[in-house]
Protein: Serine/threonine-protein phosphatase 5
Organism: Gossypium barbadense
Amino acid sequence: MVGAAVAISVEAVVLVVVGTWWWGESTEVEPQYLGAKIEGDVVTLDFVKKMMDDFKNQKCLHKRYAFQIVLQMREMLQALPSLVDINVPDGCLLTVCGDVHGQFYDLINIFELNGLPSEENPYLFNGDFVDRGSFSVEVILTLFAFKCMCPSIYLARGNHESKSMNKIYGFEGEVRSKLSETFVELFAEVFCYLPLAHVINQKVFVVHGGLFSVDGVKLSDIRAIDRFCEPPEEGLMCELLWSDPQPYPGRGPSKRGVGLSFGADVTRRFLQDNNLDLVVRSHEVKDEGYEIEHDGKLITVFSAPNYCDQMGNKGAFIRFEAPDLKPNIVTFSAVPHPDVKPMAYANNFLRMFQ
């Protein structure tokens, strides 16, 4: 049974293996629970809609169903490569979203503007689903549930899908408050299985952060990354998650202290070396929700409007239609949310400065 998750329905206990640890957690559904329920093992659209409605009304999903979603997600993500190839048929669309950062009500607004995720309406969410915003549990369970329901929903790892960031910026505390300590370790494990990058129709490279400290990196090098770990402080995986573009040529130190800054010449060489047309990345708040840089060869997209309730920025998402994959950028403004401040579950010392 090592390495497996076992559900024992009679006792209503789920045993979860997280790394080398066994956890026992009761998942009996109390008679008074009236929230969303998964019937059997299949996550359905009706379930996801009910769950989102409950979340909008600040109701929690029962831990039993949260376990089912996250454990199914773990199995699905483990089977994926570090670089995922996406095929968009001619005449079809793919929507790429940037950072959401726990802003659940703005995520719902994206779906109202652009339709719910489905096989006919696929999305790629480009990392930083959690932290800072205080509805991160709602965001991650919604995205994971859609992925369980519809494999053509794509999720990439961001720099905030990591233990060190979650401990400081709120997700870890929020998970403890809304679910349990067990889920802290379970989410940390599952985040390590998220792919690092995607390529759309062999032409558009999509990554959370950016490019590399050396020239000559090929897509095959990214595919070969062993991603099943916490992000290292240097190397290709670190740079994919942390790097930022700069307006001048060459490379420079990162303003973040991790990764690097890279110029248009670096972007151009990477695209040429890999027969690509465009880099799409996220990782930085932009006033209009997006910015086109590097001679039109790099787009930043950021999908958390009025970031942390104080930046006043718009959010954006990008729609790519095959075969030409010309980016159609849609911007939107923030919507109201319940009176729970950003970073409400964050490290107490850090929250003093918010």
Remarks:
- Residues 1-13, 18-22 have pLDDT under 50 and may be disordered.
- The domain at 81-351 is CATH 3.60.21.10 (Purple Acid Phosphatase; chain A, domain 2).
